[in-house]
Specification:
Elements lengths: L1 H18 L11 H20 L2 H5 L2 E8 L5 E3 H9 L3 E16 L2 E14 L2 E16 L2 E11 L3
Parallel strand pairs: 1-6
Antiparallel strand pairs: 1-2, 3-4, 4-5, 5-6
């Protein structure tokens, strides 16, 4: 009898975390927000290719952070400094397979990115899988973070 009570108590304790969980959270069906984010992605690509770093910066939160595949973190200022460096120039960016998920005033954008870059006179092509984290503030979508993973094409 005692073993049965202990077994029932163990099962009940194991079930507690499941009972306390909220129902599954799903992305909002928000085609307007998805379109705004896709437009922002096109705009960010254009600004990078033009080297318009002040306007590009205006689309990032002040505490923006970029994470590379090796775990290295860069602040907004470090990212802009890297972009502005004379020995580096982004020649082309091709975002593909974009997918937006909106959660109220937050969103996640994922996709593949092909980047053609000149560094120290050498042209190199990079392939990334990326995840961007966006927030809507004062009616505008801003990028709060980005994670890049190098992939093979």
């Amino acid at each position: 009898m005692r073993k049965t009570i202990l077994a029932m108590l163990a099962v009940a304790l194991l079930a507690l975390p499941v009972l306390g969980q909220a129902p599954g959270v799903k992305a909002d069906a928000d085609p307007a927000a998805e379109a705004e984010i896709m437009k922002l992605e096109t705009e960010l690509t254009r600004l990078i290719l033009q080297g318009n770093w002040d306007e590009y910066s205006s689309h990032l939160t002040e505490d923006y952070v970029r994470t590379y595949a090796n775990g290295a973190l860069q602040s907004k200022q470090q990212v802009l400094s890297e972009f502005r460096a004379p020995e580096r120039k982004v020649l082309d960016l091709i975002p593909e397979e974009l997918n937006v998920r909106v959660y109220g005033d937050a969103a996640i954008l994922t996709g593949h990115l092909t980047m053609l870059s000149r560094q120290n006179g050498r042209v190199t092509t990079f392939f990334f899988q990326f995840t961007k984290f966006l927030l809507k503030r004062d009616g505008r979508w801003l990028m709060a973070g980005m994670q890049l993973t190098t992939v093979l094409k």
